[in-house]
Amino acid sequence: MPDPIELHVRLEGSGPPVVFLHGGGPGCSSWADFRQSAEIAAPQRRRLFVDLAQYGDSAHGPITGPGWDHQAACLLHTLDLQGLGQVDIVAQSLGGSVALTLAAQHPDRVGRLVVTGSQPVPAPDSAATARALVREARSRYYGGEGPTPEKMRALIARLEWFHPERLPSSTVMLRYEHSITPWAMAGADGSGRGEPQDLSDLLAGIEHPTLWLWGSHDPFAGPDYAVALAASMPHADVSVLARTSHHPQEERPHAYGRIVREFLERKEDQ
């Protein structure tokens, strides 16, 4: 496994730190994924939008060894360089699996967790479907004439938004621009992103308050998957946002943000 790198961080606000981690789709970054909901979710917090290795502005070569372990090591290294101790984490898809890995390996560095659209454990009835969706999406987007804004809009509309007619052009362009960086293009076929992992044996030991915040029509795994994972953890809750897909924090940012804020500010779990 390569040595951890310092990840790119965009900072906003002041107060107790909360980290936002993005998903693994082409062109994802934490600013693109959470810029609409973050201030609603954490208005009086120091908000850190962290780009995982090979995404956004975090340049990185091929990852060997377990992928989430390496991403978690990079995140830990970055938190150290930022002078941060314990942080809350709000995470989407890939970012959620990385956050759970960090919580399992370094429990003292994580406070509360919000996990959206992640698959840290293969879903028995949909794991093959999810992998096929990811492969097909990358092949369609990077194949043929290569990436274009039109192909990015089609990808997001098909897999990430329940109401694609509401998809802002600004989101499409942010994602497109980060999908054509040299490090993004180098991993266009999905290779070099590290070995897949299964956190089945770790979830029961993650005692952090955790909210599985799900889109009602997530094509990769439905709300029943989130319910099953929450049931395997000692302090986990589930919330489902209707009329959303894989990126509920973008489709319904105000509703998503209000739910996250209530969870992050909760004094005790009942």
UniProtKB/TrEMBL annotation:
Sorted UniProt keywords: Hydrolase
One Pfam family per UniProt: Abhydrolase_1
Domain called AB hydrolase-1: residue spans: 16-253
Keyword set includes Hydrolase: yes
InterPro entries on file: AB_hydrolase_1, AB_hydrolase_fold
GO molecular function: hydrolase activity
Keyword Repressor: no
Full protein name: Alpha/beta hydrolase
Organism: Aeromicrobium piscarium
